[in-house]
Amino acid sequence: MTASRLQLPVVDKEQRLIEIRREAEDRGRIDSRGIRPAGAPFPRASVETGYYGIPLLKRPSWTWEIPLYFFVGGAAGASAVIGAIASYTGADRRLVRHARWIAAAGSVLSPALLISDLGRPSRFLNMLRVFKAQSPMSVGVWTLLGFSGGSVAAAFAGSMRERYGESLPIRILENAGEAASLLFGLPFSNYTGVLIGATAIPAWNENAGELPIHFGMSGLAASVGLLELMGHRRSRALQMLGLGAAVFECWEGWRLESRKSSAPEPLQHGSSGGIIRAGGILSGPLPLALRSASMLSGGNSTALRKWAAISAIAGSLLTRIGWIHAGHVSAQDWREPLRIRE
Amino acid sequence: MAENHPVGFQWVMEARERGAKIIHVDPRFTRTSAMADIWVPLRAGSDILFLGALVNYVLTNNKEFREYVVRYTNAPTILRDDFKDTEDLDGLFSGWDAEQKKYDPGTWLYRSAPRKDGREFPGHAEAGGGHGKDRGGEAQEVTNFDWDFSMEDPQCVFQVLKRHFSRYTPEMVEGYCGVPKDVFLKTAEAFTSASGPEKTAAICYAVGWTQHSKGVQIIRTAAILQLLLGNIGRPGGGILALRGHASIQGSTDVSTLYDIFPGYLPMPFFGADSHKLKEYIKKHRVRIGLWSNFDAYIISLLKAYYGDAATKDNDFGFNWLPRVTGDHSHYGYWLDMQDGKMEGLFVMGQNPAVGAANGRLERTALSKLKWLVVRDMVETETASFWLDSPEVKRGELVPEKIATEVFLFPAAGTAEKSGTFTNTQRLLQYRNKAVEAPGDSRNETWFMYHLGRRIKEKAKRNPAPKNAGLNALTWDYPVEGEHREPRVEDVLKEINGWTVSDRKQLPHIQNLKNDGSTACGAWIYCGVFPEANRNRANERAPKDLLGHGWGFSWPNDCRIIYNRASARPDGTPWSERKKLVWWDKDKKEWTGLDNPDYKKDLAPDTPDNLDSGVGVTGLGGARPFTLHSDGVGWLYVASGLKDGPLPTHYEPLESVVKNPLYAQQNDPAAQKKERPDNPYAESFGDPRYPYVLTTYRLTEQHTAGGMTRTLSHLAELQPELFTEVSPELADEIGLEHGGWARISTARATIEARVLVTRRMRPLWINGERIHQVGLPYHWGYKGKAKGDVVNDLLAISEEPNVRIMETKALMCSVAPGRRACGTGGSPVPSEQDQDSLTAPDFVRAEQAKPPVPHGSGRLTWL
Amino acid sequence: MAVTAFLTDSTLCIGCKACEVACKEWNGVSEDGLDWSGFSYDNTGAVGHSTWRHVKFVENAPEPGFGGNAAELNSWSFSSDVCKHCENAGCLEACPTGAIVRTEFGGVFVQPDICNGCGYCVVACPFGVVERNPDDGRAFKCTFCYDRQKVGLKPACAKACPTESIKFGEIETLRADARARVEELQQRGMDDANLYDPTETSVGGTHAMFIVRGDARAYNLPPKPEVPTIYLKKAWTASAIGAAVLLGGTLAAFLAERPRSRR
Ligand SMILES: Nc1nc2c(c(=O)[nH]1)N[C@H]1C(S)=C(S)[C@@H](COP(=O)(O)OP(=O)(O)OC[C@H]3O[C@@H](n4cnc5c(=O)[nH]c(N)nc54)[C@H](O)[C@@H]3O)O[C@H]1N2
Ligand SMILES: Nc1nc2c(c(=O)[nH]1)N[C@H]1C(S)=C(S)[C@@H](COP(=O)(O)OP(=O)(O)OC[C@H]3O[C@@H](n4cnc5c(=O)[nH]c(N)nc54)[C@H](O)[C@@H]3O)O[C@H]1N2
Ligand code: SF4
Ligand code: SF4
Ligand code: SF4
Ligand code: SF4
Ligand code: SF4
Ligand SMILES: [Mo]
């Protein structure tokens, strides 16, 4: 019969483990290095790690059309405003015509982009079943509709008038179109800020109070830039607007950079932070410098203004891309909605 | 149980909500452990040690339910003086024949109990076949033995039991199961304190206990524990086998096993059994208890088989019955197949290329067949072994050279056919077809019926003597519908049984006759179809807590078997709280909440008459275990088991430790079937394979995966094979969570993703840290979710009594990284394993032979 | 018509995923992908367009571990997640087509024939539930088994749950049950049992409440979910300011230019 004698654990072989156990027994917690297999710490579900770090929120399902739509809409809306005001204040008719054309082109491109982004493009008209004040997208679509109608009408009537001369119906159409385009252009230029601000995505909703202004100014800068590229590089009004927008964007950039909260992380870091920062520089300091230089160089250098225009347009586009991208990144951040801070 | 029987587990949860304590004993922390009050992680394969220590705890602390034990178990029975225990012979019982590697159970008998027949009975002991009725009657007459109701006699079962388990101590459990002493004592305390007249405790088990080289003995240990605590035959007690496939219980009742007929009647053995019905009956009938009507059961079965052709003069066709000629269990015939001894095979509702041990051998053996019929709902790995198997990918099998003709038949699924399921609690439930099977899919009944019909037509044209049985077989089921499907209810009617003369349904087992006037397909099911228009399996009106009125539970719709044990010897309930059946003095009959499984009018004070009584009456009024010839529960099994009358701790066939109790390392009677294509590691401490490997199921997948890996809604839930390892092991060998690991045994190497989890934990075994590695086994090379076949790692082995393989405890090695050849199959052995693997040689040799001409095995009548 | 709700009790959940599968079967939800995650036994990760019921596996154990025979140190709890059917539902408010409606049972239902796939609900849900199916384009989430409830049936998930971890019933009754249950659990020694039903935030309570143990954040349940409409006021104000600045600025710029251009 084999007698069975129990042995004590082979202490030296298990020294590290024993230490950990002793520590745990003595102090009720463990600070020593412990067991770290390759790949550790492996995913856990806890108050520190969330649910295996799986993001709570869903990423926006929007594709490339949407930042472009934001850009186009912003520029078009601001252009409509510029066109209308220029027309009312009796500014250069060419400027008015060009502004109207930008607005009209934008108002055609915008729905196209929107429809192309829809999961079911064939059902775009379903948007028009209802008007929902609490849904920025619904408000936005109706705004877009009014804006498109107005802008296209104004541009169309304007060109008719130029080709066939004045007539009452054309005048009415033109004036009404212009008025509508101004009226809807104002919100259309910046409602996209509301659209993303009033969502569950932390990086967006934390900036809900600034985004519309930011987007509106960015749109204005783009609009000014486009008009300047179309030749209006001697317009002082545009120069002033461009300067104003650039100053605002400088401030906005400073605001974003200096904010301290875990939420805007994607606005400051990573690729989305980089894009936003690049967009900010191209929208703010750079055009500001170029415009100032052009003014200081006495004769309103058109070359410098051309570069300022290009910079502002690129900045505006990058800004929208950056913000949408930041939304994606923010949605992936499992910590934020769970309020888990490192 | 939460993992694999989630629907049944709802009742465990309900019990928990009402205050029951749940103890879960499992090497891994599973979904069940998560619900349990106590989780006991133990080393896989050490259950007898653990349970034995519980038995010892009961005995040394006098926690047994004394009166129950004295009256309702064989504890007082005195054993022969020449019986020697494993404690005396270092791991062997007396009677071991080292040459023939089997026991002569003669010395295990009760004192004064003579052998029924002077001869030895090789019969079932020879070629497996532990499934049928217990062989108590075969080996001994129960009369005339001695007992000592004070249980003091040193040779009485109670004392032998005490000595046998005396070394199964908490310290031993701590040292060799890896269960800390305090956890063990907490468990023991919780379990024993939940037993007694006022309380009962139940044990549920499934294949974590059965699939060991000593599985039957593990369950025997649990039975001993439950008998000592008085937990059998009482509400809330019992040992509940949580069975596997739907109606797997039905498939043993109305049997698909090779060694029994329906109702657990033993199949006659060629050579060992007599060719005379009378002799066969004499051998298997027991004078006392329910088996005393053995003759009625077998003769009624023969009448059901052969109808009018079965007459008294021709022994009711007894000689037409096929004989067992060897080990025809799954592994028995599979090895024969591998050795080229089989021509053809039907595989119906099984997927052995994935589900059976030693996958490579399973698959290569298929290539030795002339024909293979697979009936399934999907193309399984078994059906496509010749095209997609790892052997083909490795070049061991070449499709062009495989002569096996494979017929794949589309089978109807469960919802597409009517019939009964028999569940774990022996409850038959009938269900109707919900939808028609699509396309050419047909159900099993249709297939078997028409196959049989065609074979019979062939046989009719050839009246050779070998066809006499076929010609005599009744095969007259009425068919219906477009596809001429047999009506399943008519089959059930035949299983229930009828009188031959006027085909009246039999209402009760007692109506079965031994004179050929009744026919019955399975005696235990008698009563399920008591009248021509009453299918009790299809009844759905539960009347009481036990569910009478919903389905039919055999025997006789009794829900808790041996329920007479719920009353004291004097017939009154042990307690008001736990009453079940009792003797109604006024009506002079047994009554209660369940159908008494006792003779209704057998008064408790009826004295037993074991000497000359017959049937249940001979047991007297207070011997509840009516299937046993002495009417009591068996703590000690004098005959019927091939590996000893008492459970003994043996190590798994492959183990990381040496048996701490005995020089005898393994269950001596277990069959290793060791051969070049089924190699083993050293039986313990093989340095090449330092870890304990265990395999199991996941809720999300089902067995070999044919029904789950093919469906996206299930496949996606566990889409890939993974191995569960502890952080400590991962640390030791550099496994990366989410990465890959190679797992090797002496048979093969497979790869799996690594899931490092605290739910696996290393155990201290005798001062050494032992790691356990877990592998679910559901994947294969077909379907949506694919993965290596875990069973390639396993060895073919056979538990001596029921011939199950050891899937739960073996030895492996683990290394980081992927195996040599790509994905989706089993491996070319890594260099490390090369020396232990000789299999490809014989495969190549086989391939070198000229192929059998294609189609030579064609079955023209199909 | 009774206003109904779910109460999912993780102390009764055995992680069998029957609810997840039953939901998929009943609603014909598409495959979620055959990717193995390594996150305990959770391979579907979260609710989304292809998983409307989702069982979470919160596997937690102190780290580093003790090795050896320390039996007690594990916790593994399961919780079946679903659309919260918020009282103030971000998705419903945001949907520009009116595809998302509140049903007579109080559930939030996406009408699949109206949704145009704009994806706005996706970013408006504070629980990350609704999601656009990239193949189909439309947004999908739990329907609260509107079709079943209509004909008086329990939702498929609740019906399939073997342990009644998912309770379904009239909302106020369930709220009361939930509170009683939490109390009972605490009395049974589970001090950390608590009810998750954000009534204090702007979401205003849900039609899918959860009983969990410990901090709900381990189950990916946000401590302070807010319906995004609360940002509207701020944002529209900013929009108005922006518009005013734009209008005023442009006017000023051109008016300032006028005298000079006349010169
Ligand atoms: N979802 C699902 N349900 C099923 C099945 C399925 O495949 N999937 N299969 C059905 C079938 S056919 C069957 S037979 C049953 C089987 O049901 P179970 O017996 O529950 O099946 P397993 O998961 O194989 O094994 C059970 C447990 O035994 C543990 N174990 C391993 N070795 C040992 C040991 O030595 N001692 C002890 N005490 N435990 C050990 C394993 O860790 C595992 O958790 O389930 C049935 N139900
Ligand atoms: N390593 C390891 N191996 C094991 C086990 C283990 O725990 N570990 N467990 C073992 C156990 S307990 C079991 S039960 C086996 C299971 O192993 P198998 O029985 O080989 O595997 P299943 O996948 O259940 O095979 C059933 C097949 O029947 C088909 N089927 C379903 N319904 C019908 C029908 O009505 N008619 C027909 N003709 N076909 C149908 C299914 O599609 C499926 O392919 O595996 C064993 N193997
Ligand atoms: S699969 Fe069927 S038999 Fe198995 S637990 Fe679920 S309901 Fe029961
Ligand atoms: S959880 Fe999300 S999807 Fe569900 S109702 Fe609330 S906001 Fe809508
Ligand atoms: S995706 Fe569909 S449901 Fe969601 S907001 Fe848009 S239209 Fe409404
Ligand atoms: S209520 Fe219906 S749709 Fe929602 S999760 Fe449950 S089953 Fe799925
Ligand atoms: S069905 Fe019930 S028990 Fe199963 S996972 Fe779902 S909630 Fe949990
Ligand atoms: Mo099984």
Q: How many beta-strand segments of chain B?
A: 28
Based on Cα principal axes, name the global outline of chain B.
globular
**What is the helix/strand order of chain A?**
HEEHHHHHHHHHHHHH
Count of runs of 4 or more consecutive helical residues of chain A: 14
Any idea what the CATH architecture of the largest domain in chain A is?
Answer: Up-down Bundle
Terminal CA distance of chain B reads 43 Å
Radius of gyration of chain A: 28 Å
Chain pair sharing the greatest interface? A-C, 99 and 91 residues
Total of DSSP H or I helical runs spanning 4+ residues of chain B: 27
Helix content of chain B: 10-25%
Low-pLDDT windows of residues of chain A: 1-13
List the strand order in the largest sheet of chain B. 22-24-23-28-21-27
Oligomer class: heterotrimer
**Total count of strands of chain A:** 2
Low-confidence segments of chain B, given as residue ranges, are 118-129, 135-140, 822-862
Q: Indicate the percent of residues in helices of chain A.
A: 55-70%
Produce a short descriptive summary.
The complex is a heterotrimer of chains A (342), B (862) and C (263). Chain A has 342 residues and is mainly alpha-helical. Chain A has helices at residues 15-27, 65-88, 93-117, 136-164, 168-188, 191-197, 202-205, 211-229, 236-258, 265-268, 270-283, 285-296, 302-332, 335-338, and strands spanning 45-46, 50-51.
Describe this structure in words.
The complex is a heterotrimer of chains A (342), B (862) and C (263). Chain A is an all-alpha fold and 342 residues long. Chain A has 14 helices and 2 strands, in the order αββααααααααααααα. Chain A folds into 2 domains: 60-198, Formate dehydrogenase/DMSO reductase domain (Formate dehydrogenase/DMSO reductase fold), CATH 1.20.1630; 201-333. Chain A has helices at 15-27, 65-88, 93-117, 136-164, 168-188, 191-197, 202-205, 211-229, 236-258, 265-268, 270-283, 285-296, 302-332, 335-338; strands spanning 45-46, 50-51. In chain A, strands 1-2 form a two-stranded antiparallel sheet. In chain A, β1 (45-46) and β2 form a beta hairpin. In chain A, α11 (270-283) runs antiparallel to α13 and α12 runs antiparallel to α13. The longest helix of chain A is centred in the last third of the chain and has 31 residues, at 302-332. The radius of gyration of chain A is 28 Å and the shape is flat. Mean pLDDT of chain A is 87; it is low at 1-13. Chain B is α/β, with parallel strands linked by helices and 862 residues long. Chain B has a 6-stranded mixed sheet with strand order 22-24-23-28-21-27. A 3-stranded parallel sheet of chain B has the order 9-10-11, with no helix packed on it. In chain B, strands 12-13-18 form a 3-stranded antiparallel sheet. In chain B, β1, α2 and β2 (38-40) form a beta-alpha-beta unit. In chain B, α3 (47-60) runs antiparallel to α9 (170-177), α3 (47-60) packs parallel to α12 and α16 packs across α18. Chain B starts with 5 loop residues before the first helix and ends in a 14-residue tail after the last helix. Chain C is α+β, with helices and mostly antiparallel strands. Chain C has 7 helices and 10 strands. In chain C, the strands form 4 sheets. A 4-stranded mixed sheet of chain C has the order 8-1-10-9. In chain C, strands 2-3 form a two-stranded antiparallel ribbon. Chain C starts with a strand and ends with a helix. Chains in contact: A-B, A-C, B-C. At the A-C interface, α1, β1, β2, α2 and α4 of A face β2, α2, α3, β6 and α7 of C.
